[in-house]
Amino acid sequence: MKTPRFVRLTLGLGLLAGGVALAEPENPAISVRLPTASYNVQLTGKDIVSQFLQLSHSPREIRGRAHDATTVITFKEGEAHGNIGGLAVNLKVKTEGDTVKAQGGFAGRPVEVSYSPSELTVYINDCTYRLKNNSEGTYIGRRSCDRAYQRETEVYLPEVFQQLSPQEQVTLLLLSLG
């Protein structure tokens, strides 16, 4: 009996997707699952790439395109400054114990971030993320801009994310969730 083309295609795509999942440690990514969309922000060497980010990264700056706008954000101790298109980025970042906190403006809008090993709280674009770590590196919870019956939001932060400075961490979170 001949296997239908649809079944062969489905099996092939399943094997391809499985291969990508196995390759994750080589290509770490911030993985975001929202109630209405899912995407990955690849952190490959000095590049940050997703469907809406094409950036180069160094410990002193992020430069490239974000959300179809020219982006340059520079890092100094406790600060991140720059522009996304014509919109200002002006963040004050501090560390309190194992918690990174930031507030200020990002792409011309007010933002606030609190990130620790146990929870992640982000206010961006009139939406507050309140997520708890499930002890496997994934932060899970609700966003204030979602309806009650929608599934929870999930954000996975790879090990390489932990090695970045607090200013870099906050900027990447805001670029990924904004």
Report strand %.
Answer: over 45%
Tertiary shape: globular
Number of strands: 14
Mean pLDDT: 86
Any low-confidence stretches, pLDDT <50, length ≥5?
Answer: 5-24
Counting DSSP H or I runs of 4 or more residues, the number of helices is 3
User: Kindly, what is the distance between the CA atoms of the first and last residues, rounded to a whole number of angstroms?
Assistant: 51 Å
State the major sheet. Answer: 14 strands, antiparallel, barrel
SS-based class: alpha+beta
Spatial arrangement of strands, main beta sheet? 1-2-3-4-5-6-7-8-9-10-11-12-13-14
Helix content: 10-25%
Rg from C-alpha positions?
Answer: 18 Å
Number of domains: 1
The assembly state of the depicted protein chains is: single chain
List the secondary-structure elements in sequence, H or E. Answer: HEEEEEEEEEEEEEEHH
How is the topology of this model organized?
Layout: H1 5-22, E1 29-33, E2 38-44, E3 47-49, E4 53-58, E5 61-66, E6 69-76, E7 79-84, E8 87-96, E9 99-106, E10 109-115, E11 119-124, E12 127-133, E13 138-143, E14 153-156, H2 159-162, H3 166-177
Overall description:
β10 (109-115) and β11 (119-124) form a beta hairpin. The chain has one domain (28-177). It has three helices and 14 strands. The protein starts with a helix and ends with a helix. It has helices at residues 5-22, 159-162, 166-177, and strands at residues 29-33, 38-44, 47-49, 53-58, 61-66, 69-76, 79-84, 87-96, 99-106, 109-115, 119-124, 127-133, 138-143, 153-156. By secondary structure, the protein is α+β, with helices and mostly antiparallel strands. The chain has a 14-stranded antiparallel β-barrel.
